[in-house]
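Reopening this ticket.

The earlier resolution said the output was attached, but the attachment link was broken on my side. Pasting everything inline this time so it's all in one place.
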Amino acid sequence: MGERTQSLGRGSFKAILYVVLLFVSLSVTSFIFRWASLEEMPSYLQPFSSMILLVHPYVVYIEGGLVFVLGYLSVNAISGLVYTYLNRRYDHPTAATLRTLTKISGIAVLLSITASVFNVNPAAALTLGSFGGLVVGFATQTILSHVVAGVFLLVSRPFKIGDTITVTGQTGVVKEIRLMHLILDAEDREILIPSGTVVTQILQKTKPQGTVEPIKTV
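Inline output:
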């Protein structure tokens, strides 16, 4: 528990650090290299005027690079933080899946922000953001449906650990109920059934005396 708490602390520090570095870097770059002529430039910067005027036309590319690099590091830190936190409460596959979703969503937002730095036409930026949203939507639709179904199973409890059930033609003893999967112990093997499949199928639960009780969880 102490190690995971330390990991959360390190992850939070890294995420905040990258965001702060991004804002500071953008502020400094904008202030130093925004001057287009010697007349506009403050006197204390005029000794460096040749370098400033040389770099000025490329400031937008420098800012775009800073946004993308530090933004990507921030997204990685935040997705790692999400994984560390969720792995304390759920199983590794569930935490890893939500970490991936967080990363995909963060990259979609980052692309939209990077486009705005380059002064992309608002309609084009909107299209880019919409495309990113569609990518995230298609990537997460199936996964989220399983997660929601897993929550439903955990809350409604149509069966419990140790029950013998049959679902989608597979019979086994309920070993674990996860967000993404139901795990059945079938003697020589484990069967993982996606939660979304479980809630849309008719289940058969074996009663203690050996009779079979059909349960519909739709």
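Reporter confirms the inline version is readable. Residues 164-216 form one domain. Helices lie at 2-33, 49-55, 59-86, 92-117, 122-156, 195-198.
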